[in-house]
Amino acid sequence: MNTDRSRWTLAPLTLALFVATSAHAGQDIDDRIQASQSAIQSFAAALQGEMMAGMEAGGPVGAIDVCRERAPEIAAEISAETGWEVGRTSLKLRNPDNAPDEWERAILEDFDSRRAEGTPAAELHHHEIVEDGDEKTFRFMRAIPTAGLCLTCHGEVGGDIQHALERLYPEDQATGYSEGDVRGAFTIIQRM
Ligand code: HEC
Fold first, then answer.
1. Atom 35 of ligand 1: nearest residue by CA position
2. What are the boundaries of the signal sequence (predicted)?
3. What are the pLDDT digits (tens) for 149-168?
4. What is 28-191's CATH topology?
5. Which amino acid residue places its CA nearest to atom 3 of ligand 1?
């Protein structure tokens, strides 16, 4: 292949991309939303994979240890990969490290009221550019629906599971959920 020729074919392409991007002001935001969704997808898939493996190896009580150890690690790994802050939060916490900030709390409350009005939890998400002094961030949240599988540790728990949770999380609030409830949300902060 002739290198001269490929240089000449690339130049108009680069220009075309530049024009296309600047012509659509919303493009950047759409990209950020898509990239956030895909980071969340990786987070959810990794967590679910490890939790299922934990269940198979050590039953629900063993899986509690997996969630406890791996959930924060996976969040840290994805944050390092993307350069964003990626995590999970909720209005009723198990791990106090996951506490929402003021902005996240308001969005979680909004998700709960939209859910109560009939929107399925799986459809709830929100993005916003938040300016605070000199700092401008793109923030994204996506609700986490409570599935049947989650009720083992977030529904009406008893027995060994209850004991393990009481020991590890003395202030646990994250029980009593029903299928379809908003359990919490994935949350992403991208500095702009
Ligand atoms: C085997 C028990 C177990 C199962 C099953 C389980 N979780 Fe959890 N969950 C935990 C533990 C333990 C934590 C605390 C993790 C930590 O310390 O960061 C947690 C934390 C969370 C959090 C973070 C917010 C908080 O309260 O700290 C969310 C959100 C969450 N779980 C959602 C789910 C969803 C959705 C499912 C079902 C797909 C699920 N969990 C299934 C044990 C479980």
1. 146
2. 1-25
3. 999 999 999 999 999 999 99
4. Beta-Lactamase (3.30.450)
5. 153
Could you read off the pLDDT of 64-79 as tens digits, one per residue? 999 999 999 999 999 9
The CA radius of gyration of the chain, in Å to the nearest whole number, is 21
**Residue 138 backbone dihedrals phi, psi, to 5 degrees:** -100, 125
Q: What is the largest CA-CA distance in the chain?
A: 72
| Single-letter code of the amino acid located at 59 | G
Distances (CA, A) of 89 to 8, 11, 27, 101, 186: 50, 45, 28, 9, 6
Q: Where are the domains of the chain?
A: 28-191
Would you state the structure tokens that stand for residue 95, as one six-digit string?
A: 């791990």
Least confident segment among 22-26, 39-43, 65-69, 142-146: 22-26
